[in-house]
Specification:
About 75% of the residues lie in helices and about 10% in strands. By secondary structure, the protein is of the alpha+beta class. Helix 3 packs across helix 4.
Length: about 110
């Protein structure tokens, strides 16, 4: 995962474009602009940033540009985020073990 991926997704319009492409598949610049209520130049600028970050692919069809998601950076981000999940799960597991030991000690103390 790269900083470019996070930076590109940090802008709300670009994040919305990624979600739009996820939900509807490949779309032209004008379709994206219309769905999000953006001007064509604004949409093109955002799509250029997403393309530079490797988040979208562009296919040229005559005078149209058709954009689709490139899953690789998103999969890399998912892998990176899962490292945090694993750390938290390990912490919860250790905490659970401590609770079990405390409960066992309390039960033993009552039985003595």
């Amino acid at each position: 995962m790269t900083f470019a991926t996070l930076s590109a997704l940090a802008e709300p319009n670009r994040f919305n474009i990624v979600e739009l492409l996820r939900d509807f598949g490949a779309m032209t610049v004008s379709e994206i602009a219309q769905k999000l209520g953006l001007r064509l130049p604004q949409s093109s600028k955002h799509l250029h940033v997403l393309s530079e970050a490797g988040l979208v692919n562009v296919q040229v069809d005559a005078n149209r540009r058709i954009y689709s998601l490139c899953p690789t950076p998103l999969l890399e981000m998912n892998d990176w985020l899962e490292t945090f999940t694993r750390v938290k799960e390990e912490q919860f597991d250790r905490f659970e073990e401590l609770l079990k030991k405390a409960q066992m000690n309390e039960t033993n103390a009552k039985n003595d």
